[in-house]
Predict the structure.
Amino acid sequence: MSRRISLYDAWQRLLDGNERFVSGDSLHPNQNASRRSALVNTQDPFAVIFGCADSRLAAEIIFDVGLGDVFVVRTAGHVIDDAVLGSLEYGVSVLKVPLIVVLGHDNCGAVTAAKEAVETGEVPSGHIRDLVERITPSVLSSLREDKTDVNDMVVEHAKQTVRRLLDSSRVIFDAVDDYSTAVIAVAYRLEEGRAQLVSASGVL
């Protein structure tokens, strides 16, 4: 892995790809047989994308990237657990990725479920309950600021997720602290297809 890309260049590459996607001019790069062959024994992604598992939020499509470009981790509501932390730490410490993107989106079902649980006092059963409980602090934080729309809560949850990653992982915290990695929160708009930066920890 000899190539290094700066934090800024990593984010700019994602922005450029997203702009192509929004305008309908996607290039679909790095998706051919030669790229596939080149990656058999190695990978060198330039960003980690930790996003919601929603079927409308396929990272490689909305950022117009291809095989080997981004290291993707997804859970409903981009909820953090030990497997997520291990995966993100792998991206930072082994793959030396300079950018972690926390990717939320409007009309998120997981955030909506947490909002409804707060409003009604009725919590879902099974493991969905765990998702809702982990998102609830973001919903409450949004409500304390008199932001009651679910999409405001989505933005707050993305911001809170960045903070939780730094609080939960010494590896990620140290990488941000020494400016080798940045962690940013991005909100994706389903209708227009645009990804918007909403917070950043580290230098872009």
